[in-house]
Amino acid sequence: MKKTFIISLFSCLLTLSAISQTQGTLTVIATTSSTGGNYAPKNIVTIWIENEQGNFVKTLLAYAETRKTHLNTWEASTTAAGSPFNTVDAITGATRSSHGTRTCSWNGTNVSGSLVADGTYKVRLELTDKNGTGNFSTFTFVKGLDPQNLTPANVPSFSSISIVWQPVLTAVEEESLEKQYSVYPNPGSGLFKVRGEDILEIDVLNASGSVVYTGKSASVDISEQPKGIYYVKITTGNGIVVKKVLLTMN
Questions:
Q1: Is the separation of the CB atoms in 141 and 148 below 8 Å?
Q2: What 8-state DSSP symbol labels residue 19?
Q3: What is the DSSP letter of 16?
Q4: 205-214 pLDDT, tens per residue?
Q5: Fewer CB atoms near the end CB (10 Å): N or C, the chain?
């Protein structure tokens, strides 16, 4: 009886481990460039998530409307899932008139809003500037309790790639980490200071999610940017902290 109980308990623990669902945020950043198509520099681009088996999970970004049918890999992935060109919760927009840095994030859920199981997932990026297949690439990461900070090598049409998975800390840890960092003056005219220890990198994103500043110095200068709300992403040795700042008129 005791042996049966132990075996049952062990099986239960294995099952729970297999279906762990860690909350967190995946941030994907990449700078786009032309495929050499006849519509360049205009381009359509998408970034989405698939599971390890290659099944569609969620679209993160899709700058494509009337010409989206030329994003053939994304079309095939979403169609196989029964929802062609699905953009639930995604950043969306029309054809881009030029290239630049694209930023998007994933909260670990599928199109139904359900948190998916931990494990290996794929980030897929696709871009074209012609009436046909362009360039696409795939990168893998592990969704789980451990943070990941990947900087893959440049690939056709995508460079300066950053893929960061940051699991949610416990309430106590998160509050403690949050209190260790500050950005001042806030509001300010664009010359900000970041206070805190073990800062690895500082990124500033505008309200649209585009990176407008990247550096490692505690002094941040975005005074040339339009006034409005910005997000300071502070990557540290203990995790990632994001602070909202207000840029007022110079």
A1: yes
A2: T
A3: H
A4: 987 778 899 9
A5: N
Q: Where are the beta strands (DSSP E) in 55-157?
A: 56-63, 91-93, 101-106, 119-128, 135-143, 148-150
pLDDT at 10: 37
CB–CB of 181/241 below 8 Å? yes
Q: Which residue has the tokens 């950005």?
A: 183
User: Pick from 174, 113, 166, 111: which is nearest to 144 by CA?
Assistant: 166
Give me the helices (H) in 59-136, please.
72-80
The mean pLDDT value for 19-30 works out to 86
**Contact residues for 17 (Cβ-Cβ < 8 A; gap 6+):** none
Is residue 195 very low, low, confident or very high in pLDDT (cuts 50, 70, 90)?
A: very high
Q: pLDDT digits over 43-77, tens only? A: 999 999 999 999 999 999 999 998 999 999 999 99
Rounded to whole angstroms, how far apart are CA atoms 114 and 100?
Answer: 32
d(C-alpha 13, C-alpha 250), whole Å: 58
User: 72 by DSSP, 3-state: which?
Assistant: helix
Tell me the C-alpha distance between 21 and 118, whole Å: 5
Q: Dump pLDDT digits (tens) for 197-249.
A: 889 999 999 877 788 999 999 999 999 999 999 999 998 887 788 888 999 86
Amino acid at 204: V
- DSSP of 179-228: HT-EEESSSBSSEEEEE-SSEEEEEEEETTS-EEEEESSSEEE-TTSPSE
| CA distance to 18, 173, 216, 246, per residue, from 179 (Å) | 34, 10, 20, 19
Q: Per the structure block, which two tokens stand in for 54?
A: 């290659």
Q: What is the pLDDT of residue 215?
A: 93
